[in-house]
């Protein structure tokens, strides 16, 4: 399971005004299968306010990978893990039966297609449909719409 924290966090906050229950997402995604890796990808800010959140994710069973928020001249901020998630997905797909991508970002479509066409590994996606690329939903082998059970996946 590869979790794009920012994608889910902002979907939960902007669309529903709530926090995301990452523990229930992990449980639902595994669904009786053997969990090999659960990696959550996050961004560190200069204030480091997210440290306790990252620690909580680790206690729930996630390996947390972080990188610093980039701040450009002029004040523009950028922090994303798309390439890192894609590289890990490709590496892991060689030894796994399924990759669960927890994101609705359509930028992942090329990696989904690559994995499906070269390794035979299933690629599943879990996200809130309101913030998910319809093309991503079409491409993955299985899609779990977290919006269908908001009580379970939002706090």
Provide an overview of this structure:
The strands form two sheets. This protein has a six-stranded parallel beta sheet, sandwiched between helices. It has a two-stranded antiparallel sheet with strand order 4-5. The chain is an alpha/beta fold and 155 residues long. It has seven helices and eight strands, in the order βααβαβββαβαβαβα. It has a single domain, classed as 5'-nuclease (Rossmann fold), CATH 3.40.50.1010. The model has no long low-confidence stretch (mean pLDDT 94).
Note the main attributes of this structure.
single chain, 155 residues, alpha/beta, Rossmann fold, 6-stranded parallel beta sheet, 7 helices
Contiguous uncertain segments of 5+ residues: none
Which architecture would the CATH scheme give at its second level? 3-Layer(aba) Sandwich
> What's the mean pLDDT score?
94
| Alpha-beta content class | alpha/beta
Instruction: Give the helix tally.
Output: 7
> How would you describe the oligomerization state of the chains in this entry?
single chain
Given the C-alpha coordinates, what overall shape results? globular
- Please give the number of β-strands: 8
Order of helices and strands: EHHEHEEEHEHEHEH
**Percent of residues in helical segments?**
40-55%
Number of domains: 1
The biggest beta sheet is recorded as:
6 strands, parallel
Indicate the CATH class.
Alpha Beta
Q: Any idea of the CATH topology?
A: Rossmann fold
Question: What is the first-to-last residue Cα distance?
Answer: 21 Å
Question: So, the CATH homologous superfamily?
Answer: 5'-nuclease
Task: Assess the beta-strand content as a share of residues.
Answer: 15-25%
Widest beta sheet: strand line-up: 3-2-1-6-7-8
Task: State Rg.
Answer: 15 Å
């Amino acid at each position: 399971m590869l979790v794009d924290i920012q994608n889910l966090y902002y979907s939960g906050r902007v669309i529903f005004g709530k926090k995301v229950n990452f523990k229930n997402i992990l449980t639902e995604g595994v669904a009786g299968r053997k969990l090999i890796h659960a990696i959550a990808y996050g961004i560190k800010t200069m204030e480091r306010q997210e440290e306790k959140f990252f620690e909580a994710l680790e206690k729930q069973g996630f390996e947390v990978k972080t990188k610093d928020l980039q701040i450009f001249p002029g004040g523009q901020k950028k922090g994303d893990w798309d390439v890192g998630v894609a590289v890990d997905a490709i590496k892991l797909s060689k030894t796994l039966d399924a990759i669960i991508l927890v994101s609705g970002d359509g930028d992942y479509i090329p990696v989904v297609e690559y994995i499906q066409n070269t390794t035979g590994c299933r690629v599943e996606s879990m996200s809130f449909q309101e913030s998910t690329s319809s093309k991503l939903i079409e491409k993955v082998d299985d899609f779990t719409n977290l919006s269908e059970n908001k009580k379970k996946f939002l706090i």
